[in-house]
From TrEMBL:
Entry's transmembrane regions: 20-42, 81-100, 112-134, 140-164, 185-207, 261-281
Membrane topology (UniProt): Multi-pass membrane protein
Location of this chain's protein in the cell: Cell membrane
The species this protein was found in: Neobacillus driksii
Primary location class: membrane
InterPro entries, A to Z: MetI-like, MetI-like_sf
Key word Repressor present: no
Keywords: Cell membrane, Membrane, Transmembrane, Transmembrane helix, Transport
Protein name as it appears in the record: Carbohydrate ABC transporter permease
Highest rank taxon of the organism: Bacteria
Length: 295
């Protein structure tokens, strides 16, 4: 028995066009990533001469060796993990509390609070006033300058609020009849049902902070506190390879060879945490985004 669906000619053309476009988009995304990944294992001179090569003599792990033996890269990686993890925890907690509060029916002044939050999405104080606030609060050259300023994300609050509004009111009313407080309802009933939106917010927050470097460039003068992305920025844009990586290199062409190798390797290392995280978050991702965006 043939259960294959027979689409009309117009639908078949549309599906074929969509498949072709999606294939082109995937190739446009995967191609550069694959090129960078393979290039990180190749000698730069071999790439210049003949491009990607499968010849074993052209392959090398020197770029990764120099990265993992350099204190600047290792320290930057640890700093990025610390900043991204701390930022994710604080942001998710703040946005969940705010989103749940704004989802409660009968909250006095709810519309005023929503207007206030939405206003900040379109208007901000500006870079210089923000810097003065961070400075006057004594947060310069501290982890709090990276974690606190962006912890209140209005878009995350809206996603959480919409998700919580989809939770049946009967559950909350039944808990209140049993004498449960709002905090107990939130922690005992709402949070266990909110894994999809929690994982989505956590993934968004972690990725956003992991890829960020501007706040660190503005508020952190101490190089010991620089995150990985700021270190990589020096390598990729300013071509500042740390002395420890090339201490044994004297010739200029050798210096350029090592710099190029380190660039490719550093990009791969910086992408690893995100590539590792996403498969574990994927099952919650679609459900959390759809439920949190539509009601």
């Amino acid at each position: 028995m043939n259960n294959q669906i027979k689409h009309p000619k117009g639908d078949r053309i549309l599906l074929l066009t969509n498949n072709i476009l999606l294939t082109i988009i995937v190739l446009a995304i995967v191609g550069p990533l694959l090129y960078v990944f393979l290039s990180s294992f190749l000698e730069p001179n071999a790439i210049i001469r003949k491009g990607l090569s499968l010849n074993a003599s052209d392959w090398s792990l020197e770029g990764y060796t120099r990265l993992f033996t350099d204190d600047t890269i290792v320290r930057g990686f640890i700093n990025s993990l610390l900043y991204s993890t701390g930022f994710t925890i604080v942001t998710v907690l703040v946005c969940l509390f705010a989103g749940y509060t704004l989802s409660v029916d009968g909250l006095v002044g709810k519309k005023v609070f929503m207007v206030f939050f939405l206003f900040t999405m379109f208007f901000g104080g500006g870079l210089i006033p923000t810097y003065f606030v961070i400075r006057d609060l004594g947060m310069l050259n501290t982890i709090w300058a990276i974690i606190l300023p962006g912890a209140v994300n209005v878009w995350f609050i809206i996603l959480a609020r919409t998700y919580f509004k989809a939770v049946p009111n009967e559950l909350k009313e039944a808990a209140r009849i049993d004498g449960a407080s709002d905090l107990k309802i939130f922690f005992k009933i709402i949070l266990p049902l909110s894994k999809p939106i929690i994982f989505v917010l956590a993934l968004y927050a972690f990725i956003g902070q992991w890829n960020a470097y501007f706040d660190a460039m503005m508020y952190l003068d101490d190089r010991e506190l620089h995150p990985l992305q700021l270190v990589l920025r020096s390598i990729l844009i300013q071509n500042e390879v740390q002395p420890g990586m090339v201490a044994d290199v004297e010739a200029r062409n050798e210096l350029m060879r090592i710099s190029e190798m380190i660039r490719y390797s550093s990009i791969v290392i910086a992408s690893l945490p995100l590539l590792i995280m996403y498969p574990f978050f994927q099952k919650y991702f679609e459900k959390g985004v759809m439920v949190g965006s539509l009601k």
